[in-house]
């Protein structure tokens, strides 16, 4: 039987990070949100190209 490492320290650190993030002013949170939106917009063409590549691969798999 496998033994898994204790994850309680990981949970404690993650909870501390959540509390720190929650204390940030709303302006900072909105700034981060805007940055994430800009990144998504920049990545949109790459994501669409990947989806097209996957669709083409699936179509070739059905044919062959």
In a nutshell, what does this entry contain?
This protein is an all-alpha fold and 64 residues long.
Plain-language structure description:
The chain has one domain (8-63). The chain is mostly helical. It has helices at residues 8-22, 26-63.
Q: Which key terms come to mind for this protein?
A:
flat; mainly alpha; 64 residues
Break the fold down into its secondary structure elements and pairings.
Blueprint: H1 8-22, H2 26-63
Low-confidence stretches: none
What proportion of the residues is helical, as a percent range?
Answer: over 70%
Largest sheet: none
Q: How large is the radius of gyration?
A: 21 Å
Query: Please, how many domains?
Result: 1
Count of β-strands = 0
Strand content: under 5%
- H/E series, N to C? HH
End-to-end separation in angstroms reads 43 Å
Structural class call reads mainly alpha
